[in-house]
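Item description
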Amino acid sequence: MAIKSRRSADRFASPLWHDGALAAAALKEMRELAAKAREASGRVSSLMEVCGSHTMAIAAGGMRRLFPKELKMLSGPGCPVCVTSQGDIDMALELAARPGVIVATFGDMLKVRGSDGTDLQAMREKGASVNIVYSPADALELAQENPGRQVAFLGVGFETTAPVIAGAVRRARAEKTGNFSVLSLFKLVPPALELLLKDTGHKISGFMLPGHVSAVIGLEPYRFVPEKYSVPCVITGFEPLDILAGINMLLRQIISGRPSLESEYGRAVKPAGNPRAVEVMNEVFSVTDARWRSIGVIKNSGLGLSPAFSAFDAARRFGLKYRNAPEPKGCLCGAILLGKAAPADCALFGGACTPSDAVGPCMVSSEGACAAWFKYGG
């Protein structure tokens, strides 16, 4: 869609876009590059925004309506609440039902339904001790303020949040806070990308890689994507102009036929990431297999408490056992996380499943694709 007048260019004049002229120029270039990429590859460029924050930023900026027909954006497995398996959600609910236990959690987990249809919010309303915290340090302080109660933090997230929670566990040990523990449900991004790429039927033309995760782990963990699978990837920031620039970098790689690993987000992501954060994460946690919603077990894709910190493992402390549980009937969240479906493909979307009465986690989480499409349109 060409920018034909000052009035049509004004859509980019809001603070969200920061610089309307730059945005219009980037979109013009995108149309040209997308057409050339279609000629070079013989197909539409299907780019996966791995991170849920990218999904939300694209929706909030009204960007999907502006993309050319030769470009398709796919949502990926980058929403931490969304990828948490149904069985792990059931374990969190079982923990909240234990007498004397205070569950500390980020707010996104409150309305994710367990296999019996209940959620933490409903349990809270019935008297369970479920506290919303804004950092793991808040959860640790909650434990110190309630020495007669057990406080268990729900550790849901990726490499972005794991180092901060590792710091809280280290502090708990140093300060001898024995009533604090973590239910470790952390996931690692690179193994999930490899799983997607091992599917010989995948249609992913390139990856828009998460800026926050990359600020911790750096560039090297993604090197296998272009070198082993010949798929372009670009680490990208979260402002609309970052996203446009990242897409254009991916399209140039497709046109050139030389897939590589690039970073658009150099102001935040260093090539080596944050070595100190990685060091703390590796001290407190050990790499383990992890269960992903609708995907199953991915080898070496999760983090569990290391032997030196196993005393703070909530699953071990409370004897929690994982049980396989079915996905909510009719929910396409799993297919959406794999880039094989869009929210609007789900028969429940916007009808039986809304943010106020969500069936699946993709509608619950503030980073979920369904929540983004419902709020801003797809």
